[in-house]
Amino acid sequence: MALAEAPGSYERPGGFAGRARPLSLGTVPPPALILLGILSVQVGAGLAKHMFDRLPPDAVVSLRLLTSAVVLAFVTRGALRVTLRGRSRRDWAVVAGFGLTLALMNFSIYQAFSRIPLGVAVTIEFLGPLAVAIMGSRRARDAVWAVLAFTGVLMLARGGEMDPVGIAYALLAGVCWAAYILLTAATGQRFPGSTGLAVASIVGTVAIMPVGIAAGGEAMLDPELLLFGLGVGLLSSVIPYSLEMEALRRMPARVFGILMSLEPAVAALIGVALLGEVLSGRQWAAIGCVIVACVGATRGREEPSA
């Protein structure tokens, strides 16, 4: 699957690349698995934002990254010992850049969550994979989808009720997501399976932990908050990745991309249900513009050859 091929053809930020062991989910239709994965990610985001009253965003994102890094390092522990030997400086530079991008992406979107509604932040961030898909396209009509997505973001940004700093953080998260997609490909060419992402996750965690500890202080040692942080990490990374990998075994990447385009709408609904973030009609229309642009950019693409 080409990573830049469609808005849905990407690795989940903070997720796990490479092969995973099949889950006992063969009787569940693939579209249901994708929707469950989207729901898991956004519920995790909602719980993370709910924690901001007791723990700063910097500390929450540190706990999320730490959870992902620990799980991934455990899963790949055998392969890591073999893979990391004899690596070139270029290999280390790529995987380190990947890890720092991962940390900045998660840091930025959590900062956005703390300032603007969940659905708005995710919609703006989604421009990252959409931009990669459109820039990698040779179809003239994809310019229409780019204009539509840009229009949607302008609609979200207009009005004094939206924090411009939050919008800026969401845009930065989108830029990092685009870079994440490209660095996933570069890392995958240099490191087998999930080992590259395991190293990158460790790098990102090491980079962000001092910031999280400084912001969270002793509160990060609260067992209840640690448990919530673990839950956020599982809901935002481990569970959706497993569901998506199972679905991708039984459905075309193009259909996967179309279904993933629903993520901004699901984020907005989770924001309403868990956080009471009621959006205006204009904001819902703007989210709709981005979703239509994502679906339009995904439809009609040829499946990559095996």
From TrEMBL:
Keyword Repeat found: no
Domain of life: Bacteria
SUPFAM superfamilies assigned: Multidrug resistance efflux transporter EmrE
Transmembrane feature ranges: 28-48, 60-80, 92-110, 116-136, 143-160, 166-183, 195-213, 225-243, 255-275
Localization, UniProt: Membrane
Major localization listed first in the record, in broad terms: membrane
Bilayer topology term: Multi-pass membrane protein
Keywords assigned: Membrane, Transmembrane, Transmembrane helix
Protein family membership: Belongs to the EamA transporter family.
Descriptive protein name: EamA family transporter
Native source organism of the sequence: Actinomadura miaoliensis
